[in-house]
Specification:
Low-confidence stretches: none
Number of helices: 13
Order of helices and strands: EHEHEHEEHEHEHEHHEHHHHH
Shape: globular
Strand content: 15-25%
Distance between the termini: 44 Å
Largest sheet: 9 strands, mixed
Structural class: alpha/beta
GO molecular function, one term: transferase activity
CATH topology of the largest domain: Spore Coat Polysaccharide Biosynthesis Protein SpsA, Chain A
Protein name: Glycosyltransferase
Keywords: Transferase
Mean pLDDT: 94
InterPro entries: Glyco_trans_2-like, Glycosyltransf_2, Nucleotide-diphossugar_trans
Radius of gyration: 19 Å
Domain Glycosyltransferase 2-like: 8-175
Length: 307
């Protein structure tokens, strides 16, 4: 691991105080970072003092209409010459100083591992139900997933999150990297390709970031609509690998957990939230049947549809 060069890549939009905290924590990692490449949307919102404070930063500006979940990250990857590229979002904070070290370790333990993603821990203001959801999606046990795991994990075999994930650059380039046009889910689309090509995706439970959201019911609808669109647009990855089973399992486990914790008054909210998620997902999967006005109401990413 000593000779491995690591770049961290972060898309940013109107970064606030927490962004400075993120950069500060990255500079104190046990594993040295070569560069932090920031893909900033709208230069007007950028604080130039950050570049003065942190010489490790390399900042590239783009217009809002130019941003794309896949293309922006693909552009950043072209700017990197590192062996390992760690992609993060601006609202994810390293939980300790070993984040990068543990990601690199998980990524390099086997030559067939092409990606490794971190465990996401809840914020202090995270809701009770969302805390359980975090533990369901990001357990405390590491795992390595291959094509052989599809019958066991289904769609979760492809799961990978660019909230914090590391990629081997040589494999990334060999497979063509992130799709250049993606409404969402560019990480799972690439991870799916990795799995199909015989590579592995590692979940590194000891690589931890603090990241969670308390989405409203409608925000869940919009988010899952975009998720459904991404799957509909990439049948070569997702066709024949149903997603619904994992969703149903999460609902059942969450309800059982709430009963055990004697918080049954939260159950109606879980059911309503789950209904919104599924309605959004189903609408997204069938977006080609919807009028444009309906699509623009359903989506979280209106810019994506401005073709």
């Amino acid at each position: 691991m000593e000779n491995i060069k690591v770049d961290v890549i972060i898309p940013a939009y109107h970064p606030g105080k927490e962004f400075s905290t993120l950069i500060e924590r990255l500079t104190k990692q046990t594993f040295p970072i070569h560069r932090i490449i920031v893909m900033n949307t709208e230069e007007t919102y950028w604080n130039k003092e950050l570049e003065e404070k942190f010489s490790i930063l390399e900042v590239h500006h783009l217009k809002k209409q130019e941003f794309d979940h896949g293309a922006t990250r693909a552009w950043a990857a072209e700017l990197s010459d590192a062996d390992v590229m760690v992609f993060m979002t601006q609202d994810a904070l390293p939980a300790d100083k070993s984040l990068i070290e543990n990601l690199v370790k998980a990524l390099t333990e086997d030559e067939k591992t092409g990606a490794a993603y971190a465990r996401q821990l809840p914020n202090e203001n995270c809701s009770f139900v969302e805390k359980y959801t975090r533990s369901f999606n990001y357990p405390d046990r590491s795992a390595v997933k291959t094509k052989d795991d599809l019958p066991v994990y289904g769609i979760k075999t492809f799961f990978c999150s660019n909230v914090c994930a590391a990629y081997k650059r040589d494999i990334y380039q060999k497979l063509g990297g992130f799709v250049r046009k993606a409404i969402f889910n560019e990480d799972m689309i690439y991870a799916g390709r990795l799995i199909q090509e015989g590579y592995a995706v590692a979940y590194a439970a000891d690589a931890k970031v603090i990241h969670s959201h308390n989405y409203s019911y409608m925000q869940q609808f919009h988010r899952n609509f975009d998720l459904g669109v991404s799957q509909a647009e990439h049948p070569e990855i997702f066709a024949g690998v149903p997603s619904e089973g994992e969703g149903i399992k999460l609902v059942k486990k969450t309800i059982n957990y709430l009963i055990q914790k004697r918080k049954i008054w939260l159950i109606p909210g879980v059911i309503l939230q789950s209904g919104c998620k599924y309605a959004g997902y189903l609408s997204g999967k069938n977006y080609r049947k919807l009028p444009r006005k309906m699509i623009l109401w359903c989506t979280m990413n209106r810019e994506y549809w401005n073709v």
